[in-house]
Write a structure and sequence with these properties.
Helix content: under 10%
CATH class of one domain: Mainly Beta
Oligomer: single chain
Strand content: over 45%
Number of strands: 58
CATH architecture of one domain: Sandwich
CATH superfamily of one domain: Immunoglobulins
Distance between the termini: 122 Å
Largest sheet: 6 strands, mixed
Number of helices: 1
Low-confidence stretches: 1-31
Structural class: mainly beta
Length: 661
């Protein structure tokens, strides 16, 4: 009997095991339970500034949770199935990444994947300066380390078409190549590095390309003369009435203070090198009497945009009560009222923060800035070059606050960059930086404000298309950015990524627009410099080219403005004079004939504020709040629906509008 019982029990036991096995099999067929890594994270390679992405494969019963680790330490917030790093630095090279996956049944941890971070280029051999005879070849080269290298050579900060290898050659130099500044940018996905800038000297007989310019200044104000020439290795000797001036052996001659004895003096310069010599034309200096007088402060302000395209023009007016009016182009929200749409001559109001008033306004190319009474700066409009300073490139249709380290006391908008002057005398800039508009000695655009390099004690700022001016408390004027037309005022016609001195002193007001700069002295003398292709400097036939140094043009001036192709000055008597192109009637003289000297703007009287903007339109505010506009009206920027033509050459009152309510 025993064996039979034993067999029965064994049979029951085998049956139980079979049932358990079947149950287990059924449960198993319902799906996996504890997580299992089926594909490990893979090693990644990326460049500095890029992001690396890690993923993996796994099986198990959902739902799952994830936690990524860097070098064995949990990464805060890295709880998704895929992990993408922040922009990499070289310090991330060699770091290891793993992931732990968990569910209710258990967890599994992956193996570690190694991250390799490739650096940006490093220049190991810089280009060297070259001196050659005219007609000979000039060869430049650079050596750099790094992967996936690309090259772009620049001449005076302008990219040279086709110069995209490690070497650059001019096969046959000419006199015009003398003085060219050559630089190369070396880049890869990790970044761009610029070489040192080197000079190309081309030896030939001296030849003057820009003569010294005759000018008029007020007694005791500064005088600046300059000459531009080719020839290579030039030496200079300035003369006054034919006699050498001791120590005056630079390309630029600066006289700290003109005297009555200097009136009608003739200044010239002799240039020489081993190939020969040449003497410049004589420039006559007129010195007139004048006295120190404070400049008036206008109760209201007008600012016109700098786009340089007629169809995108708009107008801003800061009223005496601190509100801001706007009209004209509005595709990107330039009206600042939260809307975007077609141009309109209906007067709108910029939406300022509740309880705040405007102290200063400035219109750029397609964007605007406002300084509020509490020192805050707000921006709106187009933002394709990060000119709003908000850390992105998204447009804004209403004023949005710009984060600055301190309260501001002034703002200035260039075509695609912006400036703010802080109450401690520092200047911050943001936006486009192709030719050094930011002033921090870099080549990168800035999406948020950065400090202009080595510039302190500033009391005023101004911005043109792509250059900037700063007036310091000692009366000196500094400039940076574009300089192809000489708008920086130091005579070189080369751009600068840091502020340079113009040589002016005793200045109390600065203005900039287009590629022109302006300064007004404490004796109310007006200096202009920069582009003169349309005669906008108002220097007459004496200056037919661009002028690279501040040049005395008018006296008894309290304000002024420069635009793309014209300039306007406001006299102590409240009357306006203008010079330059006049194709849309922007000079306001009732006609459309260009002129290269200043002549009266009709109709306007008792003016207190003026601006000229866009391609060719202008505006002025009178002491009683009357606002006049004239010139091009293709974007309805004149604010007057009764003007049915595309332009008017006669200043016309903006109806039903008071700038001084």
């Amino acid at each position: 009997m025993y064996p039979r019982k034993m067999f029965a029990r064994l049979s029951r036991l085998v049956g139980a095991v079979a049932i358990l096995s079947l149950l287990s099999s059924c449960l198993s067929s319902a799906g996996p339970e504890a997580p299992k890594i089926s594909e490990q994270p893979k090693d990644r390679t990326a460049f500095v500034g890029q992001s690396a992405k890690f993923d993996f494969g796994a099986s198990g019963k959902p739902p799952f949770t994830f936690q990524w680790y860097r070098n064995g330490v949990a990464i805060a917030g890295a709880t998704a199935q895929i992990y993408a790093t922040n922009p990499l630095t070289i310090g991330d090279d060699g770091s290891k990444y793993s992931v732990k996956i968990s569910n209710a049944q258990g967890s599994a941890t992956s193996s570690e994947a190694t991250l390799t971070v490739k650096p940006p280029p490093t220049i190991t051999a810089q280009p060297t300066a070259q001196t050659v005879n005219a007609g000979a070849a000039a060869n430049f080269s650079v050596t750099a380390t790094g992967e996936q290298l690309q090259y772009q050579w620049l001449r005076d900060e302008v990219p040279i078409n086709g110069a995209t290898s490690a070497t650059y050659s001019i096969t046959a130099t000419t006199a015009a190549d003398d003085g060219a500044v050559i630089t190369v940018l070396v880049g890869n996905p990790g970044g761009i590095v610029g070489s040192q800038s080197v000079l190309l000297t081309v030896l030939s007989s001296p030849a003057i390309t820009i003569q010294p310019v005759a000018q008029t200044v007020v007694e005791s104000d500064p005088v600046v003369f300059a000459v531009s020439a080719t020839g290579g290795n030039l030496q200079y000797q300035w003369r006054r009435n034919g006699s050498n001036i001791a120590g005056a052996t630079s390309r630029v001659l600066r006289v700290a203070a003109a005297t009555a004895a200097d009136d009608s003096a003739a200044y010239s310069v002799v240039l020489s090198n081993t190939q020969g010599s040449v003497t410049s034309n004589a420039a006559t200096l007129r010195v007139v009497a004048g006295s120190v007088r404070a400049l008036p402060v206008a109760a209201a302000e007008v600012s016109l945009n700098k786009a340089g395209i007629a169809a995108v023009a708009f107008t801003l007016i800061r009223r005496s009560n601190g509100s801001v009016a706007s009209w004209g182009y509005n595709t990107d929200g330039q009206r600042g009222d939260g809307t975007a749409g077609a141009p309109s001559d209906t007067i709108g109001t910029v939406t300022l923060p509740s309880g705040r008033t405007a102290k200063k306004i400035s219109a750029g190319g397609y964007h605007s800035l406002v300084l509020l009474d509490n020192g805050d700066v707000y921006a709106w409009g187009l933002n394709d070059n990060a000119q709003l300073g908000l850390g992105d490139v998204l447009p804004r249709t209403a004023p949005t606050k710009v984060t600055l380290p301190r309260a501001a006391i002034s703002v200035a908008a260039g075509r695609a960059f912006s400036l703010a002057l802080l109450d401690d005398g520092r200047v911050f800039a943001w936006g486009a930086n192709a030719v050094g508009q930011i002033g921090d000695n870099t080549r990168d655009a800035a999406s948020k404000p950065v400090a202009v390099k080595d510039l302190t004690g500033v009391t005023q700022i101004a911005a043109g298309n792509a250059h900037a001016l700063a007036l310091r408390s000692d009366g000196s004027v500094w400039a940076w950015g574009a300089n192809a037309s000489g708008q920086l005022g130091e005579g070189s016609f080369k751009p600068s990524r840091v502020p340079v001195a113009t040589g002016l002193a005793q200045i109390v007001r600065i203005r900039a627009g287009g590629d022109v700069s302006m300064a007004i002295s404490q004796r109310r003398a007006l200096y202009l410099w920069g582009e003169n292709a349309d005669g906008q400097l108002g220097l007459g036939s004496a200056a037919s080219t661009d002028v690279g140094v501040p040049t005395g043009a008018l006296r008894d001036v309290v304000d002024g403005a420069a635009g793309e192709r014209g300039s306007i000055a406001l006299g102590s008597n409240g009357l306006l004079v203008a010079s330059g192109a006049n194709d849309a009637g922007s000079l306001g003289d009732g006609g459309t004939t260009a002129r290269n000297n200043f002549a009266a703007v009709s109709v306007v009287s008792q003016g207190i504020a003026v601006d000229i903007g866009g391609l060719s339109f202008a505006a002025a505010i009178g002491a009683d709040g009357t606002t006049w506009t004239w010139g091009d009206n293709s974007a309805k920027q004149l604010g007057n629906s009764s003007i049915t033509t595309t332009s008017t050459s006669t200043p016309t009152v903006v109806p039903s509008f008071d700038a001084i309510p």
